[in-house]
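From the shared-data thread, chain only:
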Amino acid sequence: MPDYARIYARQEYLTPGAARTVGIISERVRPDDGTCLLEMAAGKGEAAAHLAGEFACRVVAVEPYDPFVHIAAAKFWHFNLRDLVTLVRANGRRLPVRGESMDAAYCIGAPSIVGLDPALRELARVTKPGGRVIVSDIAWRAKPEESLGPEWGWMAEATPTTAGEYRAAIEAGGLTVEEVVTHPREDWEEYWRPMLEVAAEAKSATSSGGADVFFADEVEGDVEIERRGVEAYLDYVTFVARK
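Structure, as tokens:
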């Protein structure tokens, strides 16, 4: 497994356009101190911390990856959010939350990683009728005419899903899509920038461990593959739906 904690060491949000998606959640849900939100795949807990800190709403943050669980827990402690944010180590395919108990639910960048259909099904299950489900993810602007080779990295193994197909999957889960936002290219660049900074540091390290050129080359190579993917095939999209 890649060392995600190291790769993402310089960034709190782990997907393109995450900050913009959090803004969309704030505007569409309008949480207050009586609101309870569910976040699937909370990562380092930045979205949960932002929403709880700004609106005094309650957030159940679910994250399966141990290093990020520890980072998120420390963040909630540092910002005195322990009474507002409940951090749960669990997989998004089976949320440890009662049905129709959340005012809104969201997942930033991870439904297709969790598994698109089970992720959407769980987000819909835990949300109250009339509540919003907001997800953001990679969508394929265009599908390749032929199978992609290994030089395309993770894209060669992926099942291409267009924004239209993604919307259909959301609506098949009993949700009504109200808005689709395609993020600008700058959101991708902002996502890659700190990763490339980590790679540059690894190349120039002069500590006792010395430079880690292999790690740096791997990160830079992955970013370059994704950059080519964005130019040819990929968009990043946020979907706002209502139950």
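The beta strands are 36-40, 58-62, 85-88, 102-108, 127-140, 176-182, 234-242.
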